[in-house]
Amino acid sequence: MKQKICHIISNNNEYFILYYQFFKHAFGLTYANPNAKKSISIYPFFDQLPDTREKNQEFIDFIYRLQFDSDFQSNNIIIHSKDDIAEARSHDHVILQCMDVVLGAMEFRLNNKHLLKAPGSRRRGKRTIAKEKLYKHIYSHIRDIYPNFNIGESTGTNGDNSNRWSHSYRHWKFIARDSVYSTSYRPKNK
């Protein structure tokens, strides 16, 4: 499998690599089956994949083969068939639309879009204000779960990796191991 991943990396498939790692680690799937004597089936449902049919199928093949990973096998987590891995258009599924709203609200605030004004205007637009109100509403619900929640950081596991599965809300700040922090992009204090 490592050889195959190197092939994907060399073909500039950063999106698929990130998506694969996110799926494999972020949800804590390996903790979904505390009674590993019985098998548990998963049916991955991805947002519509953005590349050629061949590259998308290669990604689906990787996801299918996760069940042969030692962590998945020791927890008896299976994917019956590649046909059980689906692509979806979020506007056709209410739950995916809700996820898009939450992700959009976080992206809106993390990128300081709540401060944007139209060129030549002294005030923020009605849509910007409405989006900020939506963000604040979502944020208040997240703070009910995590009282000191900081949207710029991961929610953490409280010392127990199985919380990746059991927490009702997870927020992941992805930082590559070989990343370098640059202060040149830091916002200037007013």
Structure description:
With 190 residues, the chain is mainly alpha-helical. It folds into 2 domains: 1-88, no CATH class; 90-173, no CATH class. Helices cover 42% and strands 5% of the residues. It has helices at 2-10, 14-25, 53-65, 70-74, 94-110, 126-145, 163-166; strands spanning 40-41, 45-47, 77-78, 86-88. The strands form 2 sheets. Strands 1-3 form a two-stranded parallel sheet. A two-stranded parallel ribbon has the order 2-4. Helix 5 packs across helix 6. It is globular, with a radius of gyration of 20 Å. The protein starts with a helix and ends in a 24-residue tail after the last helix.
Strand portion = 5-15%
Tell the overall outline.
globular
- Distance between the ends: 50 Å
Report the oligomer: single chain
Biggest sheet character: 2 strands, parallel
Query: How many individual domains?
Result: 2
Quote the average pLDDT. 85
Write down how many β-strands occur, each being a DSSP E stretch of 2 or more residues.
Answer: 4
* Portion in helices: 40-55%
Q: How much is the radius of gyration in Å?
A: 20 Å
Order of helices and strands: HHEEHHEEHHH
User: Strand arrangement, largest sheet?
Assistant: 1-3
Q: Counting H and I runs of at least 4 residues, what is the number of helices?
A: 7
Give the class from helix and strand content and strand pairing.
mainly alpha
Low-pLDDT sequence parts = 1-10
